[in-house]
Design brief:
By secondary structure, this protein is an alpha/beta fold. The chain has helices spanning about 20-35, 40-55, 65-75, 90-100, 115-120, 145-155, 205-215, 235-245, 250-265, 295, 300-310, 340-345, 360-374, and strands at about 60, 80-85, 100-105, 130, 155-160, 170, 170-175, 180-185, 195-200, 270-275, 280, 290, 345-350. Helix 4 links the parallel strand 2 and strand 3. The protein is globular and about 70 Å long.
Length: about 375
């Protein structure tokens, strides 16, 4: 093993950046027009390009994924309770909280770590207005079952699709399911615009309303369409996104190749479980989580985490703790969440980015095997 790999930290993520030469013509357009935000021509061009690439009809660009989810929930004028997962980012719960809704947790599936659809019906009450599932790590939820439940109980469905750029089910964009989908283009995501996000909807009238809400509620005629806030994506981010789109297929292909190397090297390590591709799904390989069984592996997740950090490898306990364990949200936890608690206590995401080298992956796996053998 080449020890030179240890001289520089292997980070959890490494954002893709397009060549500067690709960005300069767009910057010249911005400098010439002096339109920096407020739905300028580059943002409109970016929306059209995303719609074509993702295979969707209507998309509205926003300043962040959190803002996208907040406005998506507000768009549907929900009240009362919404059912969601405890195994997600605090941002999911923040968006629910800021819309004055009560989150109700359903446990997750041990198979894909998404919300367990067999448990949703048991927590539906007369106050439930929506389901807010998360396509965790880019693996789609059981959209068919969720759609059935939503139809049976007249519920709205808003997907947190922060991890799911480019993901498809049987050739159909993951964002074409549910009433709305909220995306994130944060720097840590497969596709990034530094910061940024988007809402995908299914009709023009809804897009027009979303566009008003992200513009402090003002519509194109300067009338107040609703209670909004400033959550627009600016022209620079849009230009950056247009440049990124040229390389996204290559980025995902490289991440896929790295994922398959990890799977080959770790697939037979006793006490480790890795997620595999799902039949019919085009994945984006956004993360590489492993699940540690301490009894079989020989040590627990936290010790492995500390050992990797000592070797200048940065993994992440993702998601830990559960959002239902944060002081601000634990009051909404009304029952046991045994699967989510087990996953949160034993999961670790390993470094994965578009230009991670095979040598780096071998070193990470070598380090894992070293503590495993001990």
């Amino acid at each position: 093993m080449n020890k030179s790999v240890t001289l520089k930290e292997i980070s959890l993520v490494k954002p893709h950046l397009p060549p500067l030469d690709d960005l300069l013509p767009h910057l010249e357009r911005i400098w010439e027009s002096r339109q920096l935000t407020n739905g300028g021509p580059i943002q409109q061009e970016f929306e059209q390009a995303l719609s074509e690439y993702l295979g969707i009809n209507h998309i509205s660009l926003l300043s962040s994924g959190t803002a996208a989810l907040m406005i998506a929930i507000s768009t549907l004028k929900l009240q009362g309770e919404v059912i969601t997962t405890p195994f997600t980012s605090p941002a999911t719960l923040q968006a629910i909280h800021w819309n004055n809704l009560k989150p109700v947790f359903a446990d997750i599936s041990p198979t894909d770590f998404n919300i367990d659809c067999s448990l949703i019906e048991a927590v539906i009450t007369q106050h439930t207005s929506a389901i807010v599932p998360v396509h965790l790590f880019g693996t789609p939820c059981n959209v068919r079952k969720i759609d059935q439940l939503a139809g049976k109980y007249n519920l709205k469905v808003i997907y947190d699709a922060a991890h799911s750029f480019g993901v498809k089910i049987n050739g159909n964009s993951i964002c074409n399911f549910g009433d709305l989908s909220a995306m994130s283009f944060h720097a840590t995501k497969v596709f990034n615009t530094f910061e940024g996000g988007a809402i995908v909807c299914h009709d023009e009238a809804t897009k027009i309303y979303i566009d008003a809400l992200k513009n402090t509620g003002l519509d194109t005629k300067n009338n107040l369409a609703g209670y909004g806030f400033n959550a627009k994506m600016n022209e620079f981010q849009s230009a950056f996104g247009l440049c990124q789109l040229k390389y996204i297929d290559e980025v995902i292909a490289r991440r896929k190749a790295a994922t398959f190397i990890y799977r080959e090297l770790l697939g037979n390590v006793k006490g480790l479980r890795i997620l595999e591709d799902v039949k019919g799904v085009v994945h984006n390989y956004s993360y590489f989580p492993i699940l540690i069984n301490p009894d079989k592996f020989g040590t627990d997740r936290d010790e492995l985490y500390d050992f990797l950090k000592k070797k200048n490898i940065t993994p992440r306990k993702y998601f830990y703790p559960l959002v239902s364990d944060f002081q601000e949200f634990k009051k909404y936890k009304t029952g046991d969440l045994p699967v989510a608690e087990n996953i949160a206590g034993n999961i670790l995401c390993l470094p994965l980015f578009h230009d991670i080298t095979e040598e780096q992956i071998h070193f990470i796996v070598h380090t894992i095997n070293h503590i495993h053998r001990k």
